[in-house]
Every structure is written in C-alpha cells, then in structure tokens.
Amino acid sequence: xxxxxxxxxxxxxxxxxxxxxxxxxxxxxxxxxxxxxxxxxxxxxxxxxxxxxxxxxxxxxxxxxxxxxxxxxxxxxxxxxxxxxxxxxxxxxxxxxxxxxxxxxxxxxxxxxxxxxxxxxxxxxxxxxxxxxxxxxxxxxxxxxxxxxxxxxxxxxxxxxxxxxxxxxxxxxxxxxxxxxxxxxxxxxxxxxxxxxxxxxxxxxxxxxxxxxxxxxxxxxxxxxxxxxxxxxxxxxxxxxxxxxxxxxxxxxxxxxxxxxxxxxxxxxxxxxxxxxxxxxxxxxxxxxxxxxxxxxxxxxxxxxxxxxxxxxxxxxxxxxxxxxxxxxxxxxxxxxxxxxxxxxxxxxxxxxxxxxxxxxxxxxxxxxxxxxxxxxxxxxxxxxxxxxxxxxxxxxxxxxxxxxxxxxxxxxxxxxxxxxxxxxxxxxxxxxx
Amino acid sequence: xxxxxxxxxxxxxxxxxxxxxxxxxxxxxxxxxxxxxxxxxxxxxxxxxxxxxxxxxxxxxxxxxxxxxxxxxxxxxxxxxxxxxxxxxxxxxxxxxxxxxxxxxxxxxxxxxxxxxxxxxxxxxxxxxxxxxxxxxxxxxxxxxxxxxxxxxxxxxxxxxxxxxxxxxxxxxxxxxxxxxxxxxxxxxxxxxxxxxxxxxxxxxxxxxxxxxxxxxxxxxxxxxxxxxxxxxxxxxxxxxxxxxxxxxxxxxxxxxxxxxxxxxxxxxxxxxxxxxxxxxxxxxxxxxxxxxxxxxxxxxxxxxxxxxxxxxxxxxxx
Lengths: 434, 319
Description:
Chain A is 50% helix and 8% strand. By secondary structure, chain A is of the alpha/beta class. The longest helix of chain A is centred in the last third of the chain and has 19 residues, at 360-378. Chain B folds into two domains: 1-96 and 133-218, no CATH class; 220-313, no CATH class. In chain B, a hairpin with a 4-residue loop joins β4 (242-243) and β5. Chains A and B meet through α5, α7, α8 and α9 of A and α1, α2 and α3 of B.
C-alpha cells in the first residue's frame, strides 16, 4: 500500500501579519454589539435634564446597533483582512511591491501602478437615505485604530511604519477630481500630511490617481470607503457604461489603487453600477449589502422606539400600545433619520406643552408639525416605503432619474400616446377631406 | 485602542516620515535613494519634501560628498546614525580618511547652517567629473529586481576608483548622464540606462585602483587616516623627500614625472573626457601636496594615483 505524503499544515498569509494583527478585529458578534453600542441612558437618568441637552445626547451619543451593523462590520473587516493578504511589512516583498507599483518596468519613471499581486476587492452598501448606512459604517470604522505606528522591529528594513487601516471620503461633488482630493484629504486628516494642498485639481485626474495610489501603498491603507456614491450619476443622467465618465472613473480607481473599495449609496447607485457589467461585478463581488427601512414587525425597530420614547422623551417608563407603535411607524416609515427627527420634535413638544403621558393625539400633533420634512424622507404620505414599493410599478419608483429613451418598436403605447395618435389620425382625415 | 500619531508628521520634517515609510534599501546610493523617494512621493510638493536641503534639486553628484547627502545624513532626527548611513550609502570609508576631521566638521557645520561652504570637500572634483559616471553591475541589477522590485544604484559601485563589482567580481557598466539630466531622471537602473551603458574594460591600472579602493572600504575612516599617514611617510622616504614645517622638498625629476603620469593616467581612465594636463598642472595636484602630512584635503583618486606612481618610480610598495 502506498502511503500518501504528509501534507504540511496550511497557514494563512495574514496569520503573522502585523498590518492585520494590530487591527484588533472583533470576531464575536456579541462583543462587537456591546462595544459599538452607545447608550448613555443605561448609565444616566435624564429626568431632570432639559430638552436641548436630551436632544443632543440622543442625536450624537445614542447608537443602538442592529444586525446590519454586525454584517457591515464583518464585511469591512473581511475586506481589510483580505486586502492585506499580500501586504506584509515584515517581508521585503512589501517594499519591493511598493517600488514595483510606482516605478516598475518603465523607461521613464512616471509612477504607474504595475504591481504583480492584484488586489481587486470591491463592495457596496446600498440602502435608502436615512436608513443609517453611513452612521453604521462610521461606527464600524471607529472600531478600527485610526493609525497604527509599527515599531522598527516589525518591519523588514528596521524602520517604523505608520499604517492607516482605512480612509473614508464623501463624494460631495460630481467631479471625479474632488473625489480624489477628498481621499487625499482623508489621509491628511489622519496623519497630518499635506496631500490635499500639494495636489490641486489642475494637476489632472491621472496625476491625482497616481498620487493617491502611491500614498495608499506607502501608508498601507487597507480599505477605501466612498460615501454618497449616487452623486456619481452625472447631471445629464447618462449612466450607460460607454457614456458615463464617472463609471469609467470608478473602474479606473478600482484598477489603480489596488486597495479594497467600499461604496455606500442609495438605490440609485445600484442602477448606476448595473449599467456597466464590469463595474457592477467589481463593486458587488466581495460585499453586497442591501439595507431597507425597518419593517413594522421588526423587533429591533420596536425596541428602538420604546427606548427613545421612554428614556429620552418622557424619561420614565410609559405604556406604549401596539397602536402607538404602529402610528409612529406610519409617520416614520421605519426610517431611522425620520425617527430621529420625529423624536426630537416629540421631545420639544412634550417639554413645551408639559405633557406627561403618551397619546395618539400627541403623536399626531407632532407629526402634523413636522410632516413636510417627514413626508419627504418617507416619500409617500402615511405610507412606508416598503409597502409602497410593492404596489408602485417599477417605472414610477424610478421617477427620480431621467427615463432612458427606448426604441419606438419596443416602447409600449401609453393611453396618452394612443389618444394623441387618434387625434392625429382624425386631423389627417379632416385635412384630406379639405 | 486607537493609535493616533498625527504628531509624528506634524512635529518632524516631512522627510523623516517618508524616509521611514519608504526606507533606503541596503547598500543603495544615497543621492539615488533621494531621487527614488521624490518619484515615489509624487503627491508631495518637491519643495516641501526637499526643504531639508534648501534645494529642490539633488545638486552636483560628481562630488564624493554631495550637499544633499550631507543635509540628509546630518538632519536632527538622523544624528544618531549619520556615520553608519554615510558608510553604507555613500561609501564614506573611501573618502573620509582623506579629510582632516576638523575640516570635515567645518564643512558639515556650514552645510547645516545653510552657509555656502566650499563647493566641494575635495579639490578639483568638478574637473574630475568625467571620472565619476554612474556605475552598476549587470548581475546586481538582476538580483535587485528580484529582491527589491527595482534595480537600485549601489553606493559601492559609485566610488570613483571602483571598476569591478566586489560581490560578483565582474566589470562594472558605466552610464554618463547627458547635459541637463540629473539622477532624478534615472532614480533606478531602468532599461534605458542599460541600453546606453558600456562596460568598463579592466586594465592593470583599474585593477590596482580597484584593489586599493576595496582596501579603503574595509578599514574604518579613523584607521584609514592613520594608514594614509604611514603611506605618505613611506612614499616620501622612498622618493627622498624632506618635509619641514613650511614646505616639502621633492626631487624635480619625480615632480615632473608625476605631472606627466597624472595627466596620462586620468586620460586613460576617462579617454572621452577633456585633457587633464591643465588639472595636473595645478599646485594642489603636485606631488609635494600629496606627500605633505599637513595638507588638509586630498582627492582620493589623485592620492591613489600618487601611490601607484610611487610604486612604479621607486621601491615603495602600497601593500
């Protein structure tokens, strides 16, 4: 009988990687939930605190994580960890790749990325505005160290190495140059460099991408997060792969940086990505999280509402019936931002009117006072988005974008079009008759 | 849990930050490293990055101890390892023994306070420019691509009188920068450099200089200084030279022969360059200056040639 050769035990490349080890990634859901949670009400009693202070605490120092928070954290940590799979400062290969990336294989050195080890990781988090995507991502990122200074003994050439695990920037303009500048500014913000100042927009997209790519290598950046991805949709509304320069930009960014990229945006972003198969594949490959407003029967939502009403609005235990919960749900449509606005208004109203008990009238009055904002956030009056989206046809739900023109033979004739055709025919008949 | 070290960049010069993030590779030629650093940090304003030296340019690289290298090595944060840095990345053992320690410190002091000191530490470096092309070993280049991801310029190869790779025992290839070009154009030994380079053909003189240069690199600068004193004494006695407090008397035959020898040796080492008759006629290149114990600074190459001359003309043995 032939004996099989004994295999040696597989060891993950990230097992002895200081870039990963010092991130202190949390593997346990419960541990994460307890660490990320921000609940001042668990320690303090707010009964004697004025409305303004309660609103501040509730607005900035209250965070109850949902299952999505853990899902997002898991996706982020996985992307970072995988991104560092071929980057280890203990080995000279890290510095070799850094050289190769910026200076390799060219006659004239111009800073082009040509690294052998491709790190093509991308993901996206998509959800309606106000559902808490950015907040959750911020909380998850806050669980990572902002920067890590590795001692000289940890590196191949015995020099201390400053690592930036993650950078996050908002896409707050339609210009790709501003996106790149924002990312450079995010690096500056963490370590005090002056990339933003040194790279004005006039230097062009190519230069800024090279500068960013080199900065990413040199600081061992593990993840790039781009928020408000839907802003990439151009003003002309052109989203098709060939026409949209921003889709090309996303593709170029992905190819150049060699760092995992996570996009955050509203459902329009998904439509934008899906118009180019390559871009969609890239940004859906490694993390694809779709959030929606919380459903009415969500335990998390119910607990959240009860906590806020009891701890921050009335500052004592009040009886909340299912009817009250349903009423609040109707006004806020399961949207966290809408709930925040509604509850802040509720705090003000209860304080101003000296109301001591919860009633349907109180809830309705507060809604009436803020319905202009709440309706915009929940889109449809008195109806939560999820219910609406089931009823409204697809074409209507996409009314925020300019409709893509369809060929005549494919477009279904609408009633108005048929009427117009009939009128046209009648006019033509009259003309023929003289 | 959060390690926020923004202060590291804010409180120190930006070059310290990047010198740590993009470390100098083992044996890399210091000015070439600074050129590579500039290319890698293409997102940083060169003025900001190079402000430690007071100039965006790398300056003259024909010098054995360029200004930019002294500014980098003797910056505040690098004081502890300046000597080691210059030894490994600028071949300082080759030239430091030829300088008087006081003169060397004065030069550093002038450089630090940004006062224009003498243009070079060593006399006649500008004239000997053609004798210091950029040099590299083809085998080291291949090994470096594998090891460091980029073919770097080695410090030991850039030593003026080094013509063969100590590691591979192969003749070096030389690459002359064109007018207007600097090391910033070639921070690495890229394909263009390879195609424009030519092999330095070994001959008896080059082999001798190569051996002597290797000897200098093996001994510490301080020991080199003592050794050179002994060598000078031996040379002087072999030539029957007499030194008093003011001057050095050397036989006229030797002095005339030396001028001829220096000119022809320099022309042999760099045939494409100018005629070195003018250089050899300078007072500082005279034989008496090479033998004088109190002369402050000598160019290592000229002194090594004087040793070779003494070997050929007298019974002096450099070994």
